[in-house]
Amino acid sequence: ARKRLLKLKKTPAVTKDGTPVKLMANIELPEDCAGALEAGANGVGLFRSEFLFMGRANVLGNALRIPSEDEQFEQYRKAVVAMKGRPVTIRTLDVGADKPLDPTEHTALNPALGLRAIRYCLAEPQLFLTQLRAILRASSYGKVRILIPMLAHAFEIDQTLSMLEQAKLQLREEGVKYDPDVEVGAMIEIPAAALALPMFVKRMDFLSIGTNDLIQYTLAIDRVDYEVAHLYNPLHPAVLMLIAQTIAIGQKAGLDVAVCGEMAGDTKLTRLLLGMGLREFSMHPAQLLSVKQEILNSDLSAITSRTRRILRSYEPDEIAAAVEQLQSL
Ligand code: PEP
Ligand code: MG
Known about the structure:
Elements: H1 2-6, E1 22-27, H2 33-38, E2 44-48, H3 69-82, E3 88-91, H4 117-123, H5 125-138, E4 144-148, H6 154-174, E5 183-188, H7 191-195, H8 197-201, E6 206-209, H9 211-219, H10 237-252, E7 256-259, H11 270-275, E8 280-283, H12 285-296, H13 300-312, H14 316-327
Parallel strand pairs: 1-2, 1-8, 2-3, 3-4, 4-5, 5-6, 6-7
Helix pairs in contact: 3-5, 5-6, 13-14
Active site: 260
Enzyme class: transferase
Organism: Telluria aromaticivorans
């Protein structure tokens, strides 16, 4: 079966009725690009840049060494060059909660609700500016997109964009090259963001739905707490509603909308997401060819009407059964 999948590497991901779908890779380090290309990815949909920052405190517990602008630039550039012109979506630092920058540091009582991701970056402007400069510098080596995690407030978007402008201005004054048209997107992973989507659509170039956190925050289920893992349900009608709405409203406004959470790599959910209108999936490279196979065998017209019915249901058993039935279409 693996051999048959490998043959699909160069086959374009197109549904039976001819609709093209983008399949992107989630990576943690530039070295992961090899696996992404091996799986035939159309680009990197999520480069979790925090992995360049994590685990850098030394054994004596000395101060954490943040990678310098040059070190970061080198890593981002490596990924951009490796992807040979395909887009590389670099997510700015998403630390805190399940990804502590320094595990010995004080942790908040509710870290998932605390100073994480963009909140942390805006509280540490020097660190954020350094990262933005490094990403911008890498953007002159290929196609870079910047993705901002955990946005919920308009002022966070505005502050982020103004810091990006500041970074661009600095580079311009220093005569350093970057792509002036680099696209900036928001992770939609807080329910408030999904519910107030027009706030994002107005300000951003693209959207990427982080279903891992979106589920956690919608259902109030800690994503890393095994005691409540049985309640972590991607098919909860509230979760489906938020995802479907984000795709529909984002696309209507002309923005590309991707899903980059685990749901995008789950072949049991591929058709449901297609039915919601999703045309860009970003996942671990190991899942990519299986998802592609599912897409190649999918007929959108049948799936779309069934999905509409699923989205009107509030009965979990009915939803689960209908999603399973999509598989046999
Ligand atoms: C998500 O939240 O779905 C996501 C893709 O980001 P992470 O898992 O890194 O929080
Ligand atoms: Mg997330």
